[in-house]
Amino acid sequence: MPLFSSASGVKRHVKIVGALIAREMSTRFGREGIGFAWVIVEPMVFCFGVILLWTATKPEFEHGIRVAAFTMTGYMCIILLRHQISYSINALQANIGLLHHRTVRPLHIFLARNILEFAGATTAFVFVYLVLFTLGQVSTPREPLLLYGGWLLLGWLGMGLALVMSGLAMRFDFLERVIQLLTYVMIPLSGAFAMVAWLPAGIRETYLLFPLPHPIEMVRAGVFGSAVKTYYDPIYAFAWASALNIIGMTLIANSRDRIDVE
Questions:
Q1: Domain for residue 105, yes or no?
Q2: Would 77 be classed as within a structural domain?
Q3: CA–CA–CA angle 233, 239, 243 (5° rounding)
Q4: Reported pTM
Q5: Which of these, 84, 136, 135, lies nearest to 110 by C-alpha position?
Q6: Is residue 154 one of the residues assigned to a domain?
Q7: Is residue 39 situated within a structural domain?
Q8: Could you list the residue range(s) of the whole structural domain that residue 61 is in?
Q9: Rounded to whole angstroms, how far apart are CA atoms 232 and 191?
Q10: pLDDT tens, 185-200?
């Protein structure tokens, strides 16, 4: 039976994922204290730490952009990607008991975690942006729709990468040990800390074959507008993201027999 076979089936799956998100928030962050706020506070603390370090060691402007604003646009994107991937890898081990329920499938668990991490990173981005705006380090977004589109596309691409890596890790145990290393390798390939326009023209086209720089360039184009030169192809990145999500979902769906729920 297909995962989404009818309108009622979609509604049922949405309710399952919603319940898993609520459970994840309760088990990971507790019912007392700051709870879900930690999903927001954690990336904010790391982002402000990097901003303070770069502000102290670099000139106020670099390539005509304030260092704090540039760091925010890059580091928040990296946080979203890394959290989606790292929290997906151990999603099944942390929730293996839920698979005893016939209505819960592995994909539900992965979707719940990715949605939760996307929501937390998005809220953190908004808070960091507001703080920097108050301090006069960044202006209002020049192209808001481009900013929103780039951020959503980055989340879609991040989920695709997370599902593919998780699906492969379910089949090959050794991959679980090297995925954290792979996420570090992704940083220079993502364009988070260097804009595509800064690269030599001879390697720019080759670099843009990687899908990650495209949504990050869109985010920066949305924030800075025509003040910076950006390179991106949303259709190319969306095609990559969609393909990765389809491959990842297929890998996870076909790996059910490899999951020990005893």
A1: yes
A2: yes
A3: 150
A4: 0.86
A5: 84
A6: yes
A7: yes
A8: 9-257
A9: 11
A10: 888 888 888 889 999 8
How far apart (Å, rounded) are the C-alpha atoms in residues 73 and 198? Answer: 16
Closest CA to 86 of 200, 162, 174, 188: 162
Task: Quote the tokens at residue 246.
Answer: 């389809």
Measured between alpha carbons, how far is residue 90 from residues 93, 94, 217 in Å?
5, 6, 30
> Nearest 5°: phi and psi at 212?
-60, -40
Asked if 155 and 80 count as a contact pair (C-beta separation under 8 A), the reply is yes
CA distance 66 to 239: 32
Question: At residue 75, does pLDDT exceed 70?
Answer: yes
Number of structural domains (the chain) is: 1
Residue the block writes with tokens 């990765």: 244
- C-alpha to C-alpha distance for 77 and 163, rounded to whole angstroms: 18
Determine how many CB atoms are found less than 10 A away from the CB of residue 261: 10
| CA-wise closest residue to 107 among 243, 255, 244, 7 | 255
The token pair that represents 221 in the structure block = 């184009």
